[in-house]
Every structure is written in C-alpha cells, then in structure tokens.
Amino acid sequence: MNAHRISITGSLDNRLKSWLTGHPDCHERGALVLFRKMERTVPGLPPSARFVAVDVIEMDGDWVLDSSPVHLRINLRKFQDIYFRCEQERLELGFTHSHPRGIQDFSTKDDQNEQSILRGYAGCNGSDVSLVAMILADGQWRARVRPGAAPDSVTDVRHVCVLGTELAVHISKADDAAPSEVLRRQEAAFGEPFNEKLRSLRVAIVGGGGTGSSVATLVARAGVGELIIIDGDLLEDSNLNRVRGYRRCDVGESKAATLARYIRDLGLMVTVVAIEAYVNESPEAVDAISSADLVFGCTDDVAGREVLNQAVYYYCQGLIDCGLTGKIGLDQDRQPYLRDHRGRVSTVLPEFGRCLRCQGVVTEEKLSYESALKARPKLAELDPETLREEYYLVGGGERAPGVGPFTSATADMAVATLFDLVRPYRRLPSDIRRDDFVHMVIHSNMPKDNADCFCCGPHGLLLAPENGYRLSMPSLGKLC
After folding, report:
1. Beta carbons of 33 and 53 less than 8 angstroms apart
2. Which of 316, 315, 4 is nearest to 131 (CA)?
3. Would you state the pLDDT for residue 398?
4. Taking each helix axis from N to C terminus, what angle separates 210-222 and 404-422, rounded to the nearest 10 degrees?
5. How far apart are the C-alpha atoms of 313 and 460, rounded to whole Å?
6. pLDDT-based confidence at 2, cuts 50/70/90?
7. How far apart are CA 272 and CA 219, in angstroms?
8. Could you say which DSSP state residue 353 is in?
9. In whole angstroms, what separates CA 441 from the centre of its chain?
10. If DSSP codes are grouped into helix, strand and coil, which group holds residue 77?
C-alpha cells in the first residue's frame, strides 16, 4: 500500500468545489492547487508521500481558451509565473478540474492536458517535480500523480483526505482484496466504504502506556492499514495493571518495540513499526509524525503534547489527544478513595476544535515545571505551595492514579472518536469530551477563544512553512 496521499483543509476544499461546480452553463472548470510535499522516510513502511494543499488558483478569464460540459482547453502560456512560485516556495503543482456529467475516471483528453502541463513544468523546474491531478465528479475526488521524469506514467493516489469538521476520506481506487471476515460486523454498523477508508489511513500513536497500548491494539483490530508507535520508555512493573499487549517477561524492554511485535503477531492486515524515542527529542519521530494522516496523543508529558499540538497545523492532520486526571482523598478510616477521576479526549483538526493550549492541556507553567523536574527530580517531592514560593513553579501534587478500567475506557472513547470523524454518528460535538468516572457523567468544557493564539488563531501556524527546521524548531534538527 505505497500510493501517495493528499490532504486538504475543509476551507480549501469548499473553495475548490464551489468554483469547479459553479459554471453558469455547467461547463468543465479548472483550478491549480499548490501542494507542500511531505516525503520523509519511515523505516519499515512503504514510501508514501503526503501532498498537503496550501493554495488554490481559480482558472478564469484568459486561463481558459475554450470549454464545454465535456472538455476544457487551457492556456499553457499562463503557467510561467506558477512554475517560478513553485520553485521559490518549494511547492508542487496540482491541476484539478470538474466532470459535470459525473464521469468518475480520467479521460484520454485529461492524459494529454496533464502531460502537456508536466512537460512545461519539468522543463522549467527539473525532472524531480511531480504533477498532482484531481477530478471532481458527483462531489467525490479522484486523484493521481505523474512524475516529471516520466510524464506518460501515473500513480494512483491512495486517498484524498479533507480535514474540515470531520475526516472525509475519498478513496481513489477500490481495494481488490476480498472483504475481511474480521471486519464484517464493523461494516454492518458503518457501511461498506468505512473499512476501506480506515485501511487507507496511516496512524501514529505517541505513547505506548495505559491509553496508548489500548489505542494501538484497538485501531489495529479496527483495520487501520499502517501504524506507527512512538515511545522512548521501557516497560515497568507498575505499568502492568493497565496496559495491553505486554507480559511480565517484557518488563525492562522497549514499550514501542514490544507493542509493535505483539500487534504483528495478531496476524491482522496492518503494517506496524516502532520508533523508540521521545517525540519532542527525536527528528526521526517528528518525520514519522509528518507522514501520518492522524495522530493519537497518548503521552503523559507536556513537551510531547506541545510538539503534537503544533504538528496539526504545520502538517494538516488530525490529532486525538487523551489523558486522565484524578484526586485521591482519605476517608474517616484513613483509607484512600477517589474524590475525582476523569478521562479526557480532545479532537483537534486544522480548522476545527481549539488547540491544546486553548484547552488548557498545554500551558507555559506546565512546560516550565516539567523542564525543571527533568533537571531536578527531587522537586516532585515538594508540595505546590513550596514550589510556588521557593522555586516560582506551578505544579506538583498527586499524579493521576493509574486505574486499568478507566484508562481503557478513555482509550475506547478515543478510538470511537476516530470512527466518528471518518463516519459521523454522534449527535453531539466531538472536540472535547470528559468522562467523569466517579460521578458517571459526560461533559465538555468550552475552551477559551483566543484570537491571538500562535497555534490555532487566525494568524497562527495553519499550513505554515517549516523554514529549514522540523516544525521550525532548531532543537528537532534541520530539514534536508
């Protein structure tokens, strides 16, 4: 499953569809789409570039020489400025047009138009370029890629993924494999295309502990095609009450590698790889993140969540972040009891759902405390008041208790959220969900609306270039 993938924001998708279907005489219409190409190697997974749409240019006026409901003839002399922009901004060129009569496949005339565009493009910018071609028919996208070195050859695109308020996955070509008996009941619930859409996804899971191991096994069993597990920790005895896929003999081994091996041994139709590193420290881990269509954040460190929070916008992908909080009290017999225990599932898409900073999951205070704790582990023994008065740090106190059923339930809801994004079924919004395991209620806290947020604000990181460094962070290494 090594075909390329296309990601496009909901606003650009709406703009494209409105233009392509808006001709007053129902003629074919065309547009140029400029893409940022994500092609970073993930060891163990087949090559599969992601083309992320960053701009749309409507072909109107003297762009069009002639058109009708069944053809579109474009002015090739208009392309020179576009070729130059692609070279200067390191973008790839895309050409998209409509098929008003609903013909789902590319035509012979489409072949000729694409080859003509690509020969001019490769002649100006070199044979390493690619041309992305897309057609819109009956509201569905179909796409393919032509390499500059061989304009006559084409590679089908695995899917076009539109990230709006949901994850709309347009499959370019049906899988010839026989339907999986394992997934028949899942198909009965969500319809025939659902399993195929999941199979087309590459999903990264950051953290292989209580929630991460549960999420990993669930998405593998659900039929996701490619899975990346990222964790730099070793398995500890204290993890065994709430993890899945591990045994006592695995204590001391890499969480990521052990969990990946367990999933491979299940014999499911999933390709799984492990990266034994922390996402906020490892260029390899960030490259793997950039290759994914969707990421599950299952880490318990704030620095890792900060990286994922920014990746949503740079890389145009979905993030489902989950975590647990809790407080323990003492009863009249001095026995502990749960005063509060909640599981959180946050959904962040590039243009939907406020970011983890606006949700209060990531704050400067938490980042400072975590950094100080890493340098001086003994700070964990201090109470919050002492930390604030003597070290000017906000943090400390009890860690969330590790209770297996609550951890697993949170992971279950995170994977159910993925299902809802691909095939919406819920009647309530999915952006923030909190399950209160003590009082048995479900609620959502509205995040703050911060127009100045450097991540999700109107002048934030959406589709921002990385400027030579991964996520524009020098600590994560230079880009080739």
Report:
1. yes
2. 4
3. 65
4. 40
5. 8
6. confident
7. 11
8. S
9. 29
10. helix
What are the distances in angstroms from CA 156 to CA 3, 143, 160, 366? 6, 7, 11, 45
To which H or E segment does residue 306 belong?
A: helix 302-315
Token pair recorded at residue 313 = 């916008």
Q: How far is CA 452 from the centre of its chain?
A: 24
353 touches 432 (CB < 8 A): yes
Measured CA to CA in angstroms, residue 241 lies from 47, 190, 217, 407, 410 at distances of 37, 33, 16, 10, 15
Task: Let me know: does 471 contact 480? Beta carbons within 8 Å.
Answer: no
Give the chain's length: 480
Tokens 């009249």, located at residue: 332
> Which of 354, 415, 422 has the alpha carbon at shortest distance from 166?
422
Q: Would the pLDDT of 400 be above 90?
A: no
Predicted structure pTM score: 0.95
Element containing residue 215 per DSSP (H, E): helix 210-222
- pLDDT tens digits, 119-139: 999 999 999 999 999 999 999
| Residues in CB range of 285: below 8 A, 6 or more apart | 206, 230, 275, 277, 278, 279
Nearest alpha-carbon partner for 259 in 318, 317, 211: 211
Distances (CA, A) of 358 to 312, 414, 457, 461: 14, 20, 10, 14
Phi then psi for 185, rounded to 5 degrees?
-70, -30
| E strand spans, 196-283 | 202-206, 226-230, 271-275
CA distance 95 to 173: 19
Beta strand pairing call for 318-330 and 294-297: parallel
> Residue 203: which residues within 8 A CB-CB, separation 6 or more?
219, 224, 226, 227, 228, 292, 293, 294, 295, 296, 418
Structure tokens at 83: 């070729």
For β-strands 155-163 and 140-147, DSSP reports them as antiparallel
Write down the number of H helices and E strands in the chain.
Answer: 12, 18
Rg of the chain in Å (alpha carbons): 24
Q: What is the pLDDT of residues 74-111, one digit of tens each?
A: 999 999 999 999 999 999 999 999 999 878 889 999 99
Mean pLDDT of the chain: 92
Reading phi first (left if > 0) and then psi (alpha if -120 to 50, else beta), residue 327 is in: beta
377 φ, ψ to 5°?
A: -55, -25
Which alpha helices (DSSP H) does 376-403 contain, by range?
Answer: 384-391
